[in-house]
Amino acid sequence: MPASADRVGLVFVSHSAKIAAGLVELARQMAPTVRLVAAGGTDEGTIGTSFDMITTALAEAEGGAGVVILCDLGSAILTAEMARDFLDQAKQDQVQIVDAPLVEGGVAAAVAAEIGGDLKAVVAAARYALQPAHAGEPSADAGTADPGEAGEISRTVILVNRDGLHARPAAEFVSLASTFAVPLTVNGTDATSLLSIMSLGLARGSRVHLASTDPAAGPAISALAALLESGFGEA
């Protein structure tokens, strides 16, 4: 699937070409339309970073909505800053270097870009990887869809897919949740945060409690429950 021009692009800067390329491969499983560009290693194929490679990667990643750069080590950040500083001022303003875990932040940022987040939202998603996860506990009976206390709408379903909410189905779930204009939680955590969902460690057979305080959230909860019950196409 071709990269979309209206998505924020991402550049992964690592001292290792294999790490940067591997992260692009991983993130592309969850963000197939985002411009994901690896800038790993040096021009000579050795361990290190390259000003020229990062400059080229920035041009490849730019599709009109801005670019987010994630780096593995401090010296990579310095090289990335140098490459950004050589851009025109208008382009510099559209390039953000985020101090966040390369893998977790990169995957979260890619999913945020995939679902149409702007530059600010993609940066926030990457930075969220620095925060500890806070998971709530499910409280409804499986299969119910009734208002709870204070008007809460909720439903609990059982995960049936073989590997539970691992990266790919979690990204699919978050993408769907993000299409609804109502607050949604999964076992007490934000249904639109990939890292929060994955931190729950929901395996096959787990109870997944979907809830919202918005009385209009019924259709959203039903759609998410149907996705979970479908098994995401896995055996």
Automatic annotation (TrEMBL):
Highest taxon listed in the record's lineage: Bacteria
Residue span, HPr domain: 152-235
Pfam families reported in the protein's UniProt record: EIIA-man (PF03610), PTS-HPr (PF00381)
InterPro entries associated with the record: DhaM, DhaM_N, HPr-like, HPr-like_sf, PTS_EIIA_man-typ, PTS_EIIA_man-typ_sf, PTS_HPr_His_P_site
Gene3D superfamilies tied to this protein: HPr-like, Phosphotransferase system, mannose-type IIA component
CDD domains, per database record: PTS-HPr_like (cd00367)
SUPFAM superfamilies assigned to the protein according to its UniProt record, in alphabetical order: HPr-like, PTS system fructose IIA component-like
EC number: 2.7.1.121
Protein purpose: Component of the dihydroxyacetone kinase complex, which is responsible for the phosphoenolpyruvate (PEP)-dependent phosphorylation of dihydroxyacetone. DhaM serves as the phosphoryl donor. Is phosphorylated by phosphoenolpyruvate in an EI- and HPr-dependent reaction, and a phosphorelay system on histidine residues finally leads to phosphoryl transfer to DhaL and dihydroxyacetone.
Subunit structure: Homodimer. The dihydroxyacetone kinase complex is composed of a homodimer of DhaM, a homodimer of DhaK and the subunit DhaL.
Protein known as: Phosphocarrier protein HPr
